[in-house]
């Protein structure tokens, strides 16, 4: 249909054509559903297929019928603008006024943080218009966006349930729920932050039923260098946050994570009390001082059921995993591990139901005799406890993709009710 559009434009500008407005009478392509391109577009609308934004906008210029088809909200359910590098704030306004509507569920945007031309990309007025025109938007993904011009996270649509920030810049008080911050400070001075007592009052004043509270349930931060312990402390006022993923957040410390852990207080459970899933991973840049933030898990975390550790945070996190009494699912990814290290760390995780290894390089046994003695000491008390227990058949069954069969046998004795999953794992071979 792009070629059809070009043929129409060429015929419209043909010499001697005084009826430029009536191109249907002379154009060899008839714009109705019987044409190949027309049937393809109708089929895309009916099947709710994902087309690129450029294709949709270009198709809407062909004729009035195609313009009506393009505005069908089933085609704008998921909008991805990350591959369109020329998007500006003006284009965002055009898309919002002419195409985006109540059918939008997921929006992915690329900012101008790494662009040479720079400029303001997301404005408070555009986000407010987005909230009005797209009342069903539930997921927002921002790539390389400079959010320092925004007062705080309250400018985002309240219908958001998932917020993902990748390579973005944040002001210091961005995650505060205090509306006074946006009223007293202009967007250019949004970096002013409140102290810890103010954050405690915000937590008490914004409950589940508060019309001004944040309703985000899943927050993903990937390579956000400006995210600090102060931002993490601000998340304790989010009453619905149940999943938190911190990837390559180099400024998070063990003390900051320890202060936000869910624990019993004078007025009940304090901290991130509703958090069920936590991911911490450092796999990115070199030269940063390793904070070992996962050591903050040593204080325990009430209600935390799923933990994902990656990269340089795997070793410190395994040392503290035994303090997590409610842990049921543990995922280890992008790291190097030995069988002895895994067995020692998982010895106390009796409530674990699923142990997953993703992109893990297993190191071979360097001293087999010492390893066998260690396994014998671990198996002797466990055999007495699990004599009457039903052992999981999945743990004992051989797996074609399993690189370390002895590890499965050892964990089957320690954790008979735990299922093991190996994905894209390998064994490191050391040659003498």
Automatic annotation (TrEMBL):
<feature type="region of interest" description="Disordered">
    <location>
        <begin position="178"/>
        <end position="204"/>
    </location>
</feature>
<feature type="domain" description="F-box">
    <location>
        <begin position="50"/>
        <end position="81"/>
    </location>
</feature>
<dbReference type="InterPro" id="IPR001810">
    <property type="entry name" value="F-box_dom"/>
</dbReference>
<dbReference type="Pfam" id="PF12937">
    <property type="entry name" value="F-box-like"/>
</dbReference>
<feature type="region of interest" description="Disordered">
    <location>
        <begin position="369"/>
        <end position="396"/>
    </location>
</feature>
<feature type="compositionally biased region" description="Acidic residues">
    <location>
        <begin position="370"/>
        <end position="387"/>
    </location>
</feature>
<feature type="region of interest" description="Disordered">
    <location>
        <begin position="1"/>
        <end position="23"/>
    </location>
</feature>
<protein>
    <submittedName>
        <fullName>F-box and leucine-rich repeat protein 12</fullName>
    </submittedName>
</protein>
<dbReference type="InterPro" id="IPR032675">
    <property type="entry name" value="LRR_dom_sf"/>
</dbReference>
<dbReference type="InterPro" id="IPR036047">
    <property type="entry name" value="F-box-like_dom_sf"/>
</dbReference>
